[in-house]
């Protein structure tokens, strides 16, 4: 691999576009390949073995087809299930995972109570439970499995997104700045930042929303820099792969990133 190679980014669908957005802002001279595994989504409601196998297969595909110089696992569920396997299998490849931003949230909260919105797959994973245990004395974390929300974001179903956001914030209750109230919310799935406006409307401006895009982008820069792999003059292009319906990825990329997948180099290609 060399510094002119692209960075691979994959997610179970379009949620990883929130990570790609942060990566492109942090690394404007890097080229990317985005792999949406929408044909096998949602990961958060599937077993760990299935997610691990898909993650390993996608990594091989990106290495063989695109000669990627780094891999960003832009999915909390895939990170929890497979990031250790990917690092063990591909020792020369920088592999960056994501995790719900519990550490930043524990530093931000003033009331000491934090809600963590995530998929069941993430919340039940050993990796997440270890993270939660390591921070148990720093804040009181209220865990909220948000069934269906990632799928609603994937489909761009605004009415369903609003309904589910309302349901899961009502379930938690007691938001505010007083002692015993929740003043910080972790958006613990890469899909959820695309529902941020709805959450802000429901929760009000005083509640802090925390997601993982910027920390992941900074870590990606650090790892590539350490290995001399930063591109000094790349074009910032994005190539697109999907195992699902192309129009879903096309619509999401246009809506949230302002990018035209059909007009990108190589267009949008289907993946197995």
Automatic annotation (TrEMBL):
**Known catalytic reactions:** L-glutamate = D-glutamate
Q: Can you tell me which residues form the catalytic site?
A: 75, 189
GO biological process, any:
cell wall organization
EC assignment: 5.1.1.3
Which GO MF terms does the UniProt record name? glutamate racemase activity
Give the pathway annotation.
Cell wall biogenesis; peptidoglycan biosynthesis
Q: Which PROSITE patterns match?
A: ASP_GLU_RACEMASE_1
State the PANTHER family in the record: GLUTAMATE RACEMASE
Q: What is this protein called?
A: Glutamate racemase
Q: Please state the gene responsible for encoding this protein.
A: murI
């Amino acid at each position: 691999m060399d510094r002119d190679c692209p960075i691979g980014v994959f997610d179970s669908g379009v949620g990883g576009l929130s990570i790609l957005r942060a990566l492109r802002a942090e690394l404007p001279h890097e080229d990317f390949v985005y792999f949406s595994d929408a044909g096998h989504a949602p990961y958060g409601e599937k077993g760990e073995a299935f997610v691990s196998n898909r993650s390993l297969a996608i990594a091989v595909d990106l290495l063989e087809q695109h000669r990627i110089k780094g891999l960003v696992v832009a999915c909390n569920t895939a990170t929890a299930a497979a990031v250790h396997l990917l690092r063990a299998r591909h020792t020369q490849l920088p592999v960056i995972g994501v995790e719900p931003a519990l550490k930043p949230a524990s530093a931000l909260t003033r009331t000491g109570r934090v809600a963590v919105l995530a998929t069941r797959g993430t919340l039940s994973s050993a990796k997440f439970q270890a993270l939660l245990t390591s921070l148990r004395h720093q804040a009181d974390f209220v865990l909220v499995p948000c069934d269906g929300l990632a799928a609603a974001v994937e489909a761009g179903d605004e009415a369903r997104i609003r309904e589910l956001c309302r349901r899961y914030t009502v379930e938690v209750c007691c938001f505010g700045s007083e002692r015993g109230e929740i003043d910080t919310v972790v958006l613990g799935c890469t899909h959820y930042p695309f529902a941020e406006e709805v959450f802000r409307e429901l929760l009000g401006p005083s509640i802090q929303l925390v997601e993982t895009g910027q920390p992941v982008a900074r870590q990606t820069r650090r790892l590539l820099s350490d290995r001399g792999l930063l591109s000094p003059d790349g074009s910032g292009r994005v190539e697109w792969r999907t195992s699902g319906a192309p129009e879903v990825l096309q619509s999401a990329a246009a809506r949230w990133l302002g990018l035209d997948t059909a007009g990108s180099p190589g267009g949008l290609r289907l993946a197995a």
